[in-house]
Design goal:
By secondary structure, the protein is mostly helical. The protein has eleven helices and no strands. The chain is globular, with a radius of gyration of 19 Å. It starts with a helix and ends in an 8-residue tail after the last helix.
């Protein structure tokens, strides 16, 4: 399954590049600041949330800079939220194109995840600016961060395949998923430290793959240490399982999409 999927992606790589390029141009079309919004938006959002949670709700994380803690979580979670939302509507939104010519349908959710991935890497610029300005510093373990990015990407693509499949058969998913993401946001320790949760419930929170990817990055960025072998395994296995599940669900149902235009 993986081999055939890779060969198909390689075959249609040009089309994939064009779809990503189209999305990128459409997003910043007639925008005065253009691509700068990818840098300004996370900074502005981080500033507002940092003020609210550190001053109003008095959130803090012992031993680390709260701004860096918050922005690291937001950077990862926002990628997942935006990419999965766009991937969910990608097949339905391209039905007119699918009806005219043969295009492998998986191209659409995959292109959305790649497109948001460009913005994700742009948001790393303000993240590292904050890391340097706050004195958090950079260490050799930062070279391991691409592993966390890869796991996050595979997990998001898998979720994107599943959501795009469900949304074809049930359009209510567009509204339901908005609620799911909101709940998911609060169940992921982004603004708060997991130590604030009752020890009896922490195990349930740690079952959340997004927590594992964010915590992997925080171990490196905030605590200047290499994540444990268990962290590598949990992140890799969870990402691969969801990715393969997404491919299976999508491939099993894609031939039925045409009947639900």
């Amino acid at each position: 399954m993986l081999k055939s999927s890779y060969q198909s992606i390689k075959k249609y790589s040009f089309l994939l590049q064009q779809l990503v390029s189209r999305d990128f141009k459409v997003k910043y079309k007639r925008s005065v600041l253009g691509i700068l919004w990818s840098l300004l938006y996370p900074i502005l959002m981080m500033t507002v949330m940092a003020i609210v949670f550190s001053n109003v709700f008095k959130f803090s994380v012992p031993g680390v800079n709260y701004l860096v803690y918050l922005l690291t979580g937001l950077t990862f979670f926002n990628y997942f939220s935006e990419a999965s939302n766009l991937a969910m509507s990608s097949v339905v939104g391209n039905f007119s194109l699918i009806n005219k010519v043969y295009i492998p349908k998986y191209i659409f959710p995959l292109s959305k995840c790649l497109f948001v991935g460009i913005n994700f890497f742009l948001t790393l610029i303000p993240l590292y600016i904050v890391i340097l300005l706050t004195g958090t510093g950079v260490n050799v373990f930062h070279l391991l961060l691409p592993y966390a990015f890869l796991c996050l990407f595979l997990f998001t693509v898998g979720i994107g395949f599943i959501l795009s499949t469900i949304s074809v058969f049930m359009r209510d998913m567009f509204y339901i998923y908005g609620i799911i993401v909101m709940i998911w946001t609060y169940l992921t320790p982004i603004m708060y430290d997991i130590s604030m949760i009752s020890p009896s419930l922490q195990f349930l929170f740690k079952l959340n793959p997004l927590y594992q990817y964010i915590n992997f990055a925080r171990e490196i960025i905030l605590f200047h240490q290499c994540p444990t072998l268990a962290s590598f395994v949990v992140c890799g296995v969870s990402a691969l399982v969801v990715f393969l599940l997404g491919i299976f669900v999508f491939r099993k149902n894609q031939d039925k999409f045409i009947y639900y235009v």
